[in-house]
Amino acid sequence: MLDQLMPSAWHHVEQYANNPIEADHSQLKQRLRPMRGLRTDKTAQVIIAGHAFMMNLRRGHYELAVDTPPALRVAAAFAELAHAI
What we know:
Elements: H1 2-5, H2 20-23, H3 26-32, H4 41-59, H5 73-84
């Protein structure tokens, strides 16, 4: 009856009935929720400190892998750190 009165209001959902992604977004939302960004100041501080460490390491500001070329400096520094630990 509704489709006779207002044909543009009729919404066909049968085409997505067998598609699990279109039928149920809850699993997708559950997986994406932790990736929505920095929720607290603590997590932002950790990410910023880690990024600053990597940039300083790449630029050669530490005495780790100073004698290696800049393209290989991060890998060499982590190898030195792993050997030291």
